[in-house]
Amino acid sequence: MEQDFKKLSLEILTVAFFIILVELGSYLLIKKVFQNEFQFDTNPLLEIENGRPRLRKDPFNSDSKKYWVGIKKNPNREEKNILGIASFFKKEGLISSDLGDIYINKWGFRGPYFEEKKPENIYRIITLGASATFGWRVANEMTYPRILERMLNNKLNKNNFFQVINAGQNAHRSCDVTRLYKKDVLKLQPDLLLIMLGWNDLELFKNPRFDTLKKYCQTPSFFASTNTFKLLNHLRNNYSKGKTSQKPGGSIIDRNFGFYRNNLEEIISSAKEEGIQVGLVSIPFIAGRNMSNDQLKNIEEFKGFEKNKLKNYRLAGLRIDKLYRNLIKKYSNTFYIPSGLSFNSEDKQMFFLDFMHLRESGNRIQAFAIYQALLKKIQINREYKVLFPEREEISRNLLETVYIKGIFQANKIEDLSYSGCIAFHEMCDIESNLDKSDTQLNGILEFILGSWLQFRNDVKDSSNRLVLEKLISRVLEMNPNYSLSYWVAGIMNKEWMKNIESQKNFQKAFKLNPLLKNINIEKEYQSFQTKNIPNPFLGRLSDLIFILKKAPKNVSAYTFFWWLKHNQDAQINKQLEITSFLYYSNPLMAKSIFENLVINLIKNKIHPDVILEILEKIKKLKPEYNFRKYFSTYDNKIKTTSSSD
Fold first, then answer.
1. For residue 127, which of 165, 177, 171, 178 has the smallest C-alpha distance?
2. Is the pLDDT of residue 39 over 50?
3. Contact status, residue 164 vs residue 127, Cβ threshold 8 Å
4. Is 104 helix (H, G, I), strand (E, B) or coil?
5. Bridge partners of residue 301, in order along the sequence
6. How far apart are the first and last CA of the chain?
7. Cα gap 607→588, rounded to integer Å
8. What is the pLDDT of residues 483-535, one digit of tens each?
9. CB 585 within 8 A of CB 548
10. Which H helix or E strand runs over 218?
């Protein structure tokens, strides 16, 4: 008996050793050979939850992986290492990854830190969705939730402030979003949900194995979470890539689409019980409503797609859009928002990165469309106008004018930081895999127009004018058939009293896009000044240009972060200079940047009056994030420190 037990134990140990050996071998293969394919397992930006990737919660705690990222420096393509995580107080910061430099907060959402308990006089909006909501390959400042928040917070809203929290997660499906809503979003007490969701469910629609909602939303087993399973599954998928399978029947798609609908309805009905409004935002798609497969194949972003795949995407998208319209009839707390870049618009490639993901300019159009819908729905103020007809096809010309109106609606330090980075460095983070020519073109135009809006008197200064003239020449060369390049050039030349040149620019712009004639430039400028809340730290255009030019290409976030960390004992003037550099190049980190400054000033026993003067400026920033209340806590610390001296 004892001998049999020893034999059995030896066999169990042998099997266990073999399993461990295989698992270890799979891990090493994943890490060394297939690391790009398994980025979710190796990237400290992300973690696995219920078998699916999501942004990591508490990414800056003591257990976070501090790692180095190698980047290629132009023009010599030398590799230089930069620290991949930048955070002051573990609440918010930047993580560098193959997705770009992603700004994340401790809750595992993209964007600045916010208090979990909703403050008074805050209207909290939370956006739910996948990569198009998260902002795949889009700069931190230019995702549609960030732009929408800037549009909503202006002088017209007086004491009402709006938080827009981006809960979008790459690759999430309706099951993932439903779980996220119940676990992490509902407790944040949102007043409004914006849902834009569907493309990642498309492959599930065709799967014949999902005969129940539970299977459709199945959580992977323990074995499915092992490296061995992941490696075998990866090899199987690669082997079967390109092989055709039997086309699933319509009943299968109908049934699985019903599970997708059930997930949406679960969120909507729960929100209704909680008194939460729900806006269903039409999903962005590069194709128009009535485009045939032959027309789709002529779009660059669809090159290489099979005919059936094109058809499936178009039909699924239309079906999701129809479902959104039906749900608003069923649920009184729900309303439909045409995004402006869905099936009702045409010839919109300029605003897309691929067939479903928007560029920064596309995110601005989408934010403005949602902003217009919210003006009417939650009655923010009386400036509502119908810009997006729900049934008529929206032309490229109208999209261009809406894009311009979106810039006039919100142009703040975040916009200037991003567009200035594009204007002077062409790219703003380590992610450089995609052709960004259209992104660069619109980024430069935004910087020129934003400089005029924020610093109209300064653009006449000779040194500033020289910089802006070079940028105008550059955009006219980049695309001589783009109406907005000539339109912006016309504005600036008129400002510089070059009236003949200005008239020629406007004539070319109007020929390319007659709708631009309808934009009253001076009226739009006055409207901007009426709404704009001045930034106390934005002094002169020349200062902004100097800082953005001096910022090292691609790595400004990390360079200035560590520069500041290692110069904490510098003189007050030096600290203020470094802080300006860091804030101008990374305005989303405003709370951490200025808190770090104040702490250092108190620590170094700078004169209390100097600190209090700086604090008064800081308190005027970001009312939607309670800067006044938060930074007022330092008043007593300063007084206490002063009296003890």
1. 165
2. no
3. yes
4. strand
5. none
6. 82
7. 28
8. 999 999 999 999 999 999 999 999 999 999 999 999 999 999 999 999 999 99
9. yes
10. none
